[in-house]
Amino acid sequence: MSGAALSPPTNSKSLTQTVSGSHKFVIEGYSLAKGMGVGKHIASDVFTVGGYHWAIYFYPDGKNPEDNSAYVSVFIALASEGTDVRALFELTLLDQSGQGKHKVHSHFDRSLETGPYTLKYKGSMWGYKRFFRRSLLETSDFLKNDCLKINCTVGVVVSASDCPQHYSINIPESDIGSHFGALLDNMEGSDIIFDVAGEKFHAHKLMLAARSPEFRSKFLDGLDEEKNEIIVTDLEPKVFKAMLHFIYKDTLTEEVATVSSTTTSHFPVSETLTAKLLAAADKYGLGRLRLICESCLCKDICVNSVADILTLADHCHATELKAVCLKFAAQNLAAVMRSDGFEHMKEKGPWLQSEILKTIAGGEGEGSSAVEKSQSVWGQLSDGGDTNGRRVRQRI
């Protein structure tokens, strides 16, 4: 085979499934139909399922002479030309009392055991000679106002070969972000200017409104819709720039994406670019950006940072990040309580101590009672130490 040209491998797939449809057959004047004779039937209108015609046959005096009219018979018949038509069936005599106690004869329930039923030719039938004892039927809730209602479901089995395309056209990844980003970069068509600490940012009202409910309120529903310039006082230029970048391109700026870990920073986590961007995302309703920032900050959780990150997450409604911080703090309580950030947390969000307590109470295993655990932990949170003098092992 050395040097011989090899054809690429090929594959195909056969898919077998059912094409289903239902038909309701209402029989009025049941008492008048009795006595028409064994083997004689009342037929429904013809209906189509899976490319074949079908009809329901109801035998008031039964189909089988041997039953002496003791049973009514119900069948579903192939009413069009066809050979070896495979199908699943369900015949339901509807309870008219409203209690939903229908009498169901279903082939669907047995399909995995016996397979579909095969109808060989036009006129082939599937059903029950002894569908229901007539004496019971006539005193039941299935017969009301001399009327019967029968529902029939047919599932025709069809098979098809699914072959892959021999030729294909490669479709590139979506580049809508780059197109919108170009509008931001070249300021073409901009209709709003933001003044952030003296630095000017040109943008487009419709773009901002489409991405942010806060901007939508300002430009489409609020007092700022006629303004051409807005002064922003609560964000730094680099934060506002990163937020605009995300709004237009749905990606982080390189500065945010490569920011150093907060665990090695010499300033509080709230002063990092990622934290400030999280706060901006919360204010302007940028849910996806908020989750991205939460994910970035989640990687920096440690004993020294968790209290600060928890405080930030609580303030910015970052629920996913907050849940991770609570779990980590609960697992490493004694060590966390000795961190500088814990005192800051107690000052800025004293309620978070209770939430840590609830996390511990909810996550403890068997052993001492919940009351004893709560008292022990609460003592630590209140006094700043382990009331029993034990050291909580740090789990990172």
UniProtKB/TrEMBL annotation:
Which InterPro entries does this chain map to?
Answer: BACK_BPM_SPOP, BPM1-6, BPM_C, BTB/POZ_dom, MATH/TRAF_dom, SKP1/BTB/POZ_sf, TRAF-like
The gene for this chain is LOC100790974
Domain MATH residues, every copy: 20-154
Main localisation? membrane
What protein family does this chain belong to?
Answer: Belongs to the Tdpoz family.
| Residue ranges of domain BTB in the record | 190-256
Matching entries from Pfam families are given as:
BACK_BPM_SPOP (PF24570), BTB (PF00651), MATH_2 (PF22486)
The subcellular location is: Endomembrane system
UniProt region (Disordered), positions on chain: 373-396
Higher taxonomy: Eukaryota, Viridiplantae, Streptophyta, Embryophyta, Tracheophyta
Q: In which pathway does it act?
A: Protein modification; protein ubiquitination
Name of this protein: BTB/POZ and MATH domain-containing protein 4
- Annotated PANTHER family: BTB/POZ AND MATH DOMAIN-CONTAINING PROTEIN 1 (PTHR26379), BTB_POZ AND MATH DOMAIN-CONTAINING PROTEIN 5-RELATED (PTHR26379:SF229)
The membrane topology of this protein is: Peripheral membrane protein
